[in-house]
Amino acid sequence: MKATKERPRARNERVSNPRQRRQQHLLDVRVRSHKATQHRNRRVLVIVSKVVLAAGLCTGLYFGVQLGAKRLFFENPDYRLSQIEVQTDGTLQRDQILKTAGLREGENIFSINLAQVQERLQQLPQVNEVQVVRKMPGEIDIRLVERKPVAWITSDKQISDPFASDVAFLVDARGVLMKEKKLLPEYLGLPLITGCTSESLEPGKTVESFEAKAALDLLRLSTASFMQTRFLIREIDVSKGYCLVVSDKNHTRVTFGFDNLDTQLQRLEQFLVYADDSKRELATVNLLVQRNIPVTFGRNAVDVINETIDPEVEPRIMKAIPVHPLAKNEPEPAKSKARPSATPTVRKAVPLQKFRKD
Predict the structure, then answer these.
(1) What is the pLDDT of residues 135-177, one digit of tens each?
(2) Cα torsion for 21, 26, 30, 36, to the nearest 10°?
(3) What distance in Å separates the CA atoms of residue 222 and residue 151, rounded to the nearest whole number?
(4) For residue 238, which phi and psi values (nearest 5 degrees)?
(5) How far is CA 40 from CA 10, 32, 45, 142, 203, in A?
(6) Handedness of CA 155, 161, 166, 172 (dihedral sign)
(7) How far apart are CA 82 and CA 104, in angstroms?
(8) What is the layout of strands, in order, in the sheet containing 244-248?
(9) Long-range CB pairs of 290-293, under 8 A, 24+ apart, other chains included
(10) What's the CA gap between 222 and 266, in Å, rounded?
(11) Residue 255's Cα: distance from chain center in Å?
C-alpha cells in the first residue's frame, strides 16, 4: 500500500483548525472570569475587614474615652460644685436666682449646662443681662444686670398707692413689665402712667400700645438737664387716647400730643423760663395747639404762704342777724323755753360795723 503524501504546509498557515481554536477561546474566557471573581471577592473581603476593624477601633475608643471621662471627671469628687457666687445690682434674692437656675451645691460641675442655666435666668422679667462662668474645680459665678424701672403703669385712671395695688406694675425704659417681690423706697418716687386700658398688663410682657410707648418716650426725653430739675413728671394720663395729660411736681397740667415730643418739650421749656423770669406759676399748658398756645397761670406759692403767715391787722368781726330785720317800732318776740321748730330762722353773717350803723 502506498503511503499518502502530505501536502506541504505554508509558513504562515495555522496548525489548529477553526474548531480547535474556538474550543481554546472558550476555555481561556472561563479561566479569566474565574480569576476575576476570585480577585473581586478578595478585594471585598479586604475592604470589609478594614471597615470592621475601623468600627471596632472607634467603638473601643468611644467607650474607652467615655469610661475615662466618667472616672476622671463626672465621678471625681474633686469636681463637685462646692461654691455658687451670685452677684446682682437689683432686688433679686439669692434663693430666687438659684431656684430659677436649678443649681444646688454637691452636684458635678461638668453635668451643669451653662447655656440652659443662662436661658432660665433670662426668662425672669427683672433680668436684663446674664453671665454664667464655670471656674474649676468646683465654683460657678452668676452675674446679673437687672432692669431699671422708670415708672409705674396701671390700667386704672386713678390710683392712690401703687405699692399696695395689684394692678400696678413697674416698667423699664424698653417697656418690659415687672412685678417686684421686694419694693425699694425709691420706687415710690417714680412717675405713674395711668389709663393704659388698651392692652393686658402682665409681668414679663412688653407694652405694645401707642399711648404707653409715647409716655415712655416722653419720660426719656424729659431727662434733660433743665427739664429734669424744673419739670419733674409725676403722672401721665393716657386714657383720652389722643393726647398725654401730664402733671408735674408743682401740679402743673401740660397736654402733649403723640407726635414731635422733643419739639413740644422745647416749647414748654420756653414757657418755664418765662414763668421763672416773671415769678409766676404755670397752671395749665396745651401744647396740642401749634400757634397761640393756651396758657393759664396760678397764684404764686410765696404769696399764698405769706397770706397764711401774715393775716390782716384788723380782722373783720362777723355777727349773725336775721335775714328779715325787724321794724323800728316792732317789739322783739319773747324768748320761749319750748323746743325750736323744725324750720329754724335763717340768719346771715354781716360785718359788725354795718350792724351798728343800722
Answers:
(1) 988 899 999 999 999 999 999 888 878 888 888 999 999 999 9
(2) 70
(3) 13
(4) -110, 15
(5) 44, 12, 9, 63, 72
(6) positive
(7) 9
(8) 177-178, 168-172, 149-154, 192-194, 233-237, 244-248, 253-256, 281-286, 295-298
(9) 293/267
(10) 10
(11) 27
**121: which 3 cell numbers?**
435666668
What grid cell was written down for 106?
Answer: 454637691
Kindly report the pTM of this predicted structure: 0.62
pLDDT tens across 206-217, in order?
Answer: 999 999 999 999
Burial class (CB in 10 A: 0-12, 13-18, 19+), 246: buried
Residue 277: C-alpha distances to residues 86, 147, 170 (Å)? 52, 39, 37
153, 169 in Cβ contact below 8 A? yes
Cα–Cα distance list, 1 to 5, 6, 225, 319 (Å): 12, 15, 148, 193
Q: Which residues, in sequence order, are CB contacts of 317 under 8 Å at separation 6+?
A: 351, 352
Residue with cell 401703687: 162
Are 309 and 292 a contacting pair, CB within 8 Å?
A: no
84 grid coordinates = 455658687
273, 276, 279, 280: CA torsion to nearest 10: 60
Instruction: Name residue 283's amino acid.
Output: A
